[in-house]
Amino acid sequence: MSIEQLARDARLASVSLQSVTNEQKNEALLRIKQVLAERKDDIFKANEKDKQLAEEQVKLGKLSGSLFKRLDICNGDKFDTILSGVSDITSLPDPTKKVTMATKVDTDLSLYRITVPVGVLLTIFEARPEVVVNISCLALKSGNAVILKGGKEATFTNAMLANVIQDALASLPESNPIPKTAVQIVETREDISALLDLDRYVDMVVPRGSNSLVKYIQNNTRIPVLGHADGICSVYLDKDGDVSKATRIAVDAKTNYPAACNAAETLLVHQDLLKSDFFTQVAQALIDAQVTLKCDAASLAHLQKQLPASNKLEPSVEEDYHTEFLDHIIAVKVVADVSEAVEHINDHGSKHTDSIITENAATADYFMTRVDAAGCYWNTSTRFADGFRYGFGAEVGVSTNKTHARGPVGLEGLVIYKYRAYGNGNIAGDYGTGKKQFLHDPIAPSDYHV
Amino acid sequence: MSIEQLARDARLASVSLQSVTNEQKNEALLRIKQVLAERKDDIFKANEKDKQLAEEQVKLGKLSGSLFKRLDICNGDKFDTILSGVSDITSLPDPTKKVTMATKVDTDLSLYRITVPVGVLLTIFEARPEVVVNISCLALKSGNAVILKGGKEATFTNAMLANVIQDALASLPESNPIPKTAVQIVETREDISALLDLDRYVDMVVPRGSNSLVKYIQNNTRIPVLGHADGICSVYLDKDGDVSKATRIAVDAKTNYPAACNAAETLLVHQDLLKSDFFTQVAQALIDAQVTLKCDAASLAHLQKQLPASNKLEPSVEEDYHTEFLDHIIAVKVVADVSEAVEHINDHGSKHTDSIITENAATADYFMTRVDAAGCYWNTSTRFADGFRYGFGAEVGVSTNKTHARGPVGLEGLVIYKYRAYGNGNIAGDYGTGKKQFLHDPIAPSDYHV
User: Fold this and answer.
1) What global pTM score does this model have?
2) How far apart (Å, rounded) are the C-alpha atoms in residues A233 and A213?
3) Of the residues A20, A75, A384, A389, which has the maximum number of CB atoms within 10 A of its CB?
């Protein structure tokens, strides 16, 4: 089948999905869970094949041990976690069919704005095969068709999972209109480059993976891309900060999970904190947590004096303040005040999540109002920027976009709206100066007819 | 000044705009209105210069009469309309600082989602110089900085209007932090191509103008584009339609303002309507309104038999169903049923606005659920797709995008949100299995502290 045909099928599936009920979507999700459980052996066999091939790559030094680990879905309770993830998504509220505006334009003309699925999603991800199940379920729950492309290390597992999901959809009762083409998988880079051109059929691309993957996609399509390339988060220690909060948050933000996009990469320090042992305490705690500090001249001079025995202090270069280390490394810079901190963040950050540590409410408000990031935090670790921690139940990813959806994105990020007008033969020519006038009265929810 | 510096200034202005109050924004808007009125003579002189040059172009046949007319802001009450437009925008509610989600993540950790300006807008438009004032005011009211680029025919007028707006902003009292760089203007195509590359500084592009302008921009930037290239709207006459509503709506949708993007370009006709004089009546009304009907074989055969004297009937080609005529021409096609009508629209339409004429509620629902367009109308003319008719007070444009904002876009389309977390030293490492649990309780509006 040609890629164009596959994309067209996805578009047609998305039209069918526009009219399904929440019950029908849940029926499909629970059927997927059931068939996944039934076909566990097939899935494990496919996973074994991928792991065998990957093992050779690890031996040749061509694949990292951590990537290999992420490939494995047979280990421990991993498979059960995948199944319970399906249940979790099933139990979330339906994000579609919500009326977000209702206006009586005239006595016999009602206008409603109602949430609808975006349409066709293209998701591209690396390594972890459970994303096939997770994203398929999020797409279905929000009424979207999805085309998946996984990493080549997981080819057999991804194909088997997609195959099982399609079989589950195909086995739905006839009363359920969700077609199996609601979930499709492609395997090659050429397929992706063809799909990135098909903005007629594909409405949104959701890349999950490395900076280079996301940048490649952003640079090669007119289709809106939901996601983030970089996660350069900062923690700013204000002169009015509490040293115990500062220490706890700096260490958590950097070391709780350094490979995550919401880990801190830059520590900004108010110059006054060099007059006491405030900054030294924070630095010592980071060093104790095995973090290397890449310091500007002022902070380096201070720390080399205060902590002369440490071998975790290095001079920084400008590039460090634009770098997502994803490791036990943090760039440190002394700033004159909160205003310089905000300026640094707006210039160097990736609009992901930034935190201020202060007991001064006015300073916090200054920071949180002016920092242009999806998340602006006060006395809180940047690591909270996550759909589960925000209470969304499930997350599509974290977006650093300035439009549509920003920050951790749950099901709400996969819907848009349409306007529905219910008239009685109303024509524009009847309204205007000396003619009929518009009412523009709000319609109360109890009077909705939609 | 380099374009990069100009874009950087816009970004800095947008940071200042993040913290302004509605009162400060209104103060700026009313000051703009006042200075525009004071400098009316300068503005008219600049407009005269443009008109003189344009007149020569008209004589040489290089500029159309209608474009010339749109250039003129001295004529009749045009200038007063521009001034009252500023007042209208001033009186609209502030779209920013609205809390759209509030969650108690833990007893001492509150999370708010709050609307904020998108940031820096780039708007590109043709001919009508009043767009300078309109878009500047919409941008300021929503807290955005804006960079404007108008058509070259209005160079002097656009520059003068932008200059007057900057002078008005520069004359604000010191207590008002809106800088004059909140509104800037550029003049050349080279400036635009440089700006389309500066996604670091520019957050959204709003092109208003021809199909080719919009397509050029969509194809040449990574920055999100808000707008529409085509307006291919359809009216579908169902077998259960009311002939009087069908006639009124078909004529209004086609002829009320044929150059508008919400004018109908395609008329779809249920085959059963050829068994009575239903379709003939609608066609006759269109012909009486000077509309040429480009008909498929079935409709042409029918009409040539019913209306043999008409010279407004022509055979159609496939391309006609993809064409935005913007004239007294409509493409006509007979379909088997509502399902074929929906399929035709989803394949040929531009996701703008489509209308069904029927007395059958189930058929209407089928159509309005499955047609993938920003506006799905029942017994209503497509011409209602307009920000003023929707009651938005002012409109940025009409979007056929599938993300962010769709349909007529008012001030709400110029805002996004950020998450603000208010903690007490909270760290992610404290939560999890066997540790602290998240509350995820909603916060009541009376308990908001934001």
Assistant:
1) 0.95
2) 20
3) A384
